[in-house]
Amino acid sequence: MDPKLTEVSQLFERFKAAITRKDYDTCTQQLSQLKVMLTGFRSLPPLFEETPNSVHELTLARDIFEHAVLLSVKIEDQDAFERDFFQLKPYYTDARNRLPESPNEYMILGLNLLRLLVQNRIAEFHTELELLTSTALENPCIKHAVELEQSFMEGAYNRVLSAKQNVPNETYGYFMDLLAKTVRDEIAGCSEKAYDYLSINDARQMLLFTSDQELLEYSKEEHPEWEVKDGSVFFQKAKDSAPCKEIPSLQLINQTLSYARELERIV
Amino acid sequence: MAATMVSSAGGLLAMLNETHPLLKLHALSNLNSCVDQFWPEISTSVPIIESLYEDEEFDQHQRQLAALLVSKVFYYLGELNDSLSYALGASSLFDVSEDSDYVHTLLAKAIDEYASIKSKAAESNNEAANVDPRLEAIVERMLDKCIMDGKYQQAMGIAIECRRLDKLEEAITRSDNIQGTLSYCINVSHSFVNRREYRSEVLRLLVKVYQKLPSPDYLSICQCLMFLDEPEGVVSILEKLLRSENKDDALLAFQVAFDLVENEHQAFLLNVRDHLPVPKSQPSEAVQPVSSDPASAQNESSTAAEDVQMADGTSASVTTVPEADPSEVMYAERLTKIRGILSGETSIQLTLQFLYSHNKSDLLILKTIKQSVEMRNSVCHSATIYSNAIMHAGTTVDTFLRENLDWLSRATNWAKFSATAGLGVIHRGHLQQGRSLMAPYLPQGGAGGGGSPYSEGGALYALGLIHANHGEGIKQFLRDSLRSTNVEVIQHGACLGLGLAALGTADEDIYDDIKNVLYTDSAVAGEAAGISMGLLMVGTASEKASEMLTYAHETQHEKIIRGLALGIALTVYGREEEADTLIEQMTRDQDPILRYGGMYALALAYSGTANNKAIRQLLHFAVSDVSDDVRRTAVLALGFVLYSEPEQTPRIVSLLSESYNPHVRYGAALAVGISCAGTGLSEAISLLEPLTSDVVDFVRQGALIAMAMVMVQINEANDSRVGTFRRQLEKIILDKHEDTMSKMGAILASGILDAGGRNVTIKLLSKTKHDKITAVVGLAVFSQFWYWYPLIYFISLAFSPTALIGLNYDLKVPRFEFLSHAKPSLFEYPKPTTVPTATSAVKLPTAVLSTSAKAKARANKKEADQKEKAIAEKTETSTAGKGKSSSEKDGDSMQVDTPQEKKAEPEPSFEILINPARVVPAQEKFIKILEDSRYVPVKSAPSGFVLLRDLRPTEPEVLSLTDAPSSTQSPASGTTTGQQGSASAMAVDEEPQPPAPFEYST
Questions:
Q1: Model pTM?
Q2: Where in the numbering of this chain does the 26S proteasome regulatory subunit RPN2 C-terminal domain appear (chain B) (predicted)?
Q3: Residue A124 and residue A51 in one domain
């Protein structure tokens, strides 16, 4: 076997060990090293050169990136998740016919969908969805994400929150927590539009808080423009309804005059 | 297994956000290779890549890579400016030699950018132009690459555009065909370098390069030097050539001189002549000093009984020189000749002989006009006189006038003035006998009682026309006449004459004389004085212009203002940007007449440059000025600016020609007439055709005249519309109900159409693409005839003979044959008209003509056959080298064809012309010199004066043009046929028709 490949797989083993040890600092360090080493392989995307070891290398690289994605969930780093996922994606799409299917594929794709949902990037969510095959849509991980999105769009927020109980994989927990916050933001946004003010009690219920204290903290952090007084929350509506547009009379007059002058000059 | 392709750049883009620099580098380099495919995806991440480029921590290579990537993305997004600035950031990674759209586009952009920065810097005279050194580096890399690859023309183009004369020189000197590249460069600098000073710089460089060559091309050098106005350089070259033992060098010197003369730059030519050493043996008084040394001026006027002429007088005196050093004698002899050429006398004399001997003007046309024009209508009467003068310009044939003295005497007052002046046009260039010819009409010193002032004034004007631009001998006489009279009309004539004779000499004394006339504030004399001052100062951009402008503001007479306005315009002739202040001043004036002068100033300052700024300005005035006169002139002026690119004019003025304003339509017609003169351009004719039947009379007039200018020397075989036009003219002239204005236009048009005995064309550019100053000035003043009919005669200045005149070492015209490889009918003279009005008689004379031609053909058949054989032999010998069989076949087919010749007589596909011959501009490309001819031209030129090298100097020469036309020609010999003297016995159309179709292959 290629010495370089051996070196990578050895490092990868150590990396996996570190994950199980939950030694995340070492993990990120080793991951970075791994990635740099991977750039040395010419069989990987975007080159996809045919080398004797290419299948082996591709599989290894895919494993590394899958672990990287999972690691990013564990350390709760959304940016890293996105980065690693995009680097992983070519192995699923472009190298599909050269590699045996990965057991983690649908789990990770589902995670990504969930992430997009959390970040409220609905357009991208649907783009990703369109790229999936019909069999993939049957997969519980994917199905879960799709159902969540539907509930979310319908406004059935309680269903979204209750879905936390039956996650297909334990890694989903992190995103489900985040989803609750996304849902709350949506509700807050809607309430702002819908009401001038709400009583604190109603607002607490509406925003799914268990205590008034939480509500106050939330309003202070996320919506400093809200005002809490007399037992009610006043939503400061954007009052800057644009003043009705002035007719640019002077400009129009000038234009008309110049047209008249030009007409005179027409040869 | 199918090759796997990436379907998205997402992974690589994600990698850019990694922390490890190696990963970023990996991502960048991979992105760079797939950017062509994935640029839409990458474009969303451009900010990240930009930040990589700006990150100081990265190493140079990585940052350049990032810049290159961004540049490519911007290129695909169509943001070329951003793309370029990042490409500059990529410095060496941007590979000039890469063959991709990206690189090509950006290179073009970079060069454009660089050129515009450089030219802007040059225009603002800002020496320290802050050019991005990286930009400069790219352009230099490109230039070096062009030179390395042998694409010299590209390199030169870029170098000129970017004002990199160092690179230009490098490109020229390293090219494999230096002569070719140099002449290409000269062409380019004339047609594409708009700024005058810069063009001078380029030319100066070219001269430098030329002089370094082992065998310099003196013809081109001298042309450059002329443009640069450096007579000393020309003189030293001429001297070197004349001193040479070799006869060929002397021939070359003569050729140089002829070429210089062709450009009609009188002041320059005089300068060259003054710098040439005076031949020792030459009697001193034969040389005319240009400076107005009072003593010699006196001397002159006293001996002025016969016009002073140096060429002839001195050639005689040279022989009387006591035997000196033979080489010195030879040198002196050559010097004399070259001085003769430079003074223009030799060429004028030869031209005169040519025009006289080949005169083909058709008196019947004039007769028709004369009969159909109503006697009492003085406008048409004098138009007929103008037409006659133009038709016979330079031919010295005044038969028509002599035959119709009675009719002529109806001209009174100003008509008399122009009738007399018309003699000047007819005898144009008759330098030796001009004075004696006009003597009966000239003011008789002191006595005053003689003729009417109108004919006296006209005679002075005529003298000016005869001596136009070569007035050395006549200036003094005209000055004296001007001083000794205070009759307005005579002053008018004298002013015009003086202006013409001293064209462009900027002579201070003459200027003062004319100024005195101007300050008398008489309308008639003042107008002529204004124009005359302009003529005197043509192209000098002297401060006199402001003096004239001040007076134009002071005086009350519109005529004077108009004369001055034109005069001021003339002073800035060809000065381009230098004239901008004056133009600005004039075009902003309250007085419409001065604005009108401003239009002329624009026209003349930018004449023939096709300068975009000038065109824009003129178009603006053409549609926005309140005065019709100014609008008309603005459109007309376009013709002057565009004459170097006649194809452009019809397109530019086509909209204006459909204007509701008749003045603008008139201007459009003349603009096309001026810029397309003599070209027969199809678009021009199509544009003018509808205008010739316009509803407004003066538009018809302008269109007819313009059409005639365009169709000069085009015959029906070339464009059938010429025939239609001729018939239209006849119809208008004969139609009793036609307006006087358009009738006058038609009469003038028939004159212009057959100008100079059908042997001249209107040409504003010399063969070397220089402006012909006299011609341009002539047309500019001619276009004033709107206000003052006598100015029509100025058109004669624009006529240039269409002839190939070969000269031997003695500057004589030897018999010499050459080939015009085209059907003779394409370029022959129009058929003489037959008896007019009587339609039934039309057929008869043609029949006579054809039979006589046949008879003659039979008579000359032997000769023709011999000639045929000679040519056949020639082809055989020429093709023999390639393969004998083919030549034999050629000969055989000839033999076979001969018996059949009688039957069909198809038109031959070539024609043998005999020196000197009429070669119309369209014919020039068909002219070939026979291979084994006795003479070989010094330079290959299809027309004009060509010096011939005699390969068999021992054999006796046969001269074909010998006799000068005698001025006092008897009327008896003045019939159309009689004019063809013995010299033209071999005239082109009498050539026997060669029998069989025959391909002459060279």
A1: 0.67
A2: 802-958
A3: yes
